[in-house]
Write a structure and sequence with these properties.
single chain, 403 residues, alpha/beta, Nucleotidyltransferase, domain 5, 2 domains, five-stranded mixed sheet, 15 helices, 23% strand, globular
Length: 403
């Protein structure tokens, strides 16, 4: 069984999640064994640089160039750190899969100099990762799906299907990161039956609001404590729920472009005349994020699947105020966490990028067209050889058939 490291930094840009995984081919599927997991913190000022690079008004070409290389160094450090934590030498690690750091994600076709363009940009130079670690690195997973007519997101449904699909019950894997996304796995269904999409903001607006009202002293609402002490301004929630993305039908994906700095600026402009307190504002954006998720369940999931089990993962699992609202508004849903399946909720996305890298070097398609809208299944990612080149993967050609 090969050792594979998955690396992931999400929309919240709060550090690099690194998972060291052993991957075992089983029949027509895969089984993962998590050997170690950590979140490698960004050095001071790096999160601010990422947010600046992600905003057109503050980004620049030289910032992007340098940030790409610096993030490659940090991702490499995270890979080395998780191997050390597991007590495993990097020479025994077979492969690294790096999602990188999303800077812009523009999935809707846009006319551009005679071409209809879908575009996305993830940085964190994989050549640096491969050189520092000596390990073959797969990165830049989204563009191939977009070239095939998809939105390049969500990418996790392939891993969700392998890890959580069940013959008897319909499951929804609900990841609450900076952006909230769901993967619907119909009972007994095949990969072609999977439906997945972004529901809208997850932690992003909550984190952004906390950072603004505390002038950067805090960057998230630990356990939802601040939201639990505030009063929700329901009229403001109702206005926010008119956002165009929330009205779109799946497949759909979004990011900081829709729910980042510009959205927060507008939110604060609307809130100022109301004289709301800091806690009220945090409670309100928490209620809005939860309401956008509830609306997605009611419109796009429950009409087709009235009895579902929802598996929660991502950082939002720790926000009690957010989860209380979900449970209260959707009592017909059975709620579970990844931990009940023996998988860390915080580690899941990094584990999935280890799986995607594994499938790439095996020559297997790992996008899900029913989730991304792509015309066909394609092999994802770009491969940077490690120090030993292609000969470092003796297990290629062994194991299960493609899903």
């Amino acid at each position: 069984m090969p050792f594979v490291i998955g690396l992931m930094s999400g929309t919240s840009a709060d550090g690099v999640d690194a998972a060291l995984v052993r991957i075992e081919p089983v029949a027509s599927s895969l089984r993962t064994h998590l050997a170690a997991f950590l979140t490698y913190p960004f050095p001071p000022g790096m999160r601010e640089a990422i947010l600046a690079a992600s905003t057109p008004e503050t980004s620049s070409v030289d910032l992007l160039c340098r940030l790409n290389v610096a993030l490659g160094e940090i991702f490499a450090d995270a890979a080395l750190a998780v191997a050390r934590q597991a007590g495993i030498a990097m020479t025994t690690v077979d492969l690294i899969g790096s999602h990188g750091q999303t800077i812009q994600h523009l999935p809707e076709p846009t006319p551009f100099h005679g071409y209809s363009v879908r575009a996305t940009l993830q940085i964190g130079e994989p050549c640096v990762i491969a050189e520092r670690t000596g390990v073959m690195t797969v990165a830049d997973f989204r563009p191939r799906d977009m070239a095939a007519g998809g939105e390049g997101a969500p990418l996790a449904p392939y891993g969700h299907f392998l890890l959580f699909a069940d013959a008897q019950r319909t499951r929804v894997v609900h990841n609450i990161g900076g952006i909230s996304n769901v993967t619907v796995l119909p009972a007994g269904g095949s990969l072609a039956d999977v439906v997945a999409f972004d529901t809208g903001p997850g932690n992003m607006l909550i984190d952004g609001t906390v950072a603004r009202v505390t002038q950067g002293r805090e960057t998230f609402d630990r356990d939802g404590q601040q939201a639990s002490h505030g009063r929700v301004q329901q009229r403001l929630v109702d206005v926010l729920l008119t956002h165009p993305f929330l009205q779109r039908l799946p497949p759909k994906s979004t990011g900081r472009e829709a729910f980042g700095t510009t959205f927060l600026d507008d939110l604060f402009r609307r809130a100022t005349p109301l004289g709301v307190t800091a806690s009220d504002l945090i409670a309100t954006v928490t209620a809005f994020s939860a309401a956008s998720m509830v609306d997605a369940y009611r419109r796009f999931i429950l009409p087709q699947h009235p009895q579902i089990e929802s598996v929660l993962c991502g950082g939002g699992c720790h926000n009690r105020a957010l989860l209380d609202r979900l449970r209260r508004e959707l009592p017909q849903v059975t709620w579970r966490t990844c931990e009940s399946f023996g998988i860390s909720a915080d580690a899941l996305e990094a584990v999935i990028f280890a799986v995607l890298a594994y499938e790439t070097v095996r020559g297997r398609p790992a996008n899900v067209p029913s989730a991304t809208g792509a015309r066909r299944r394609v092999i994802l990612g770009k491969v940077v050889p490690g120090r030993e080149g292609w000969g470092s993967l003796p297990w290629l050609g062994q194991g299960s058939q493609a899903v």
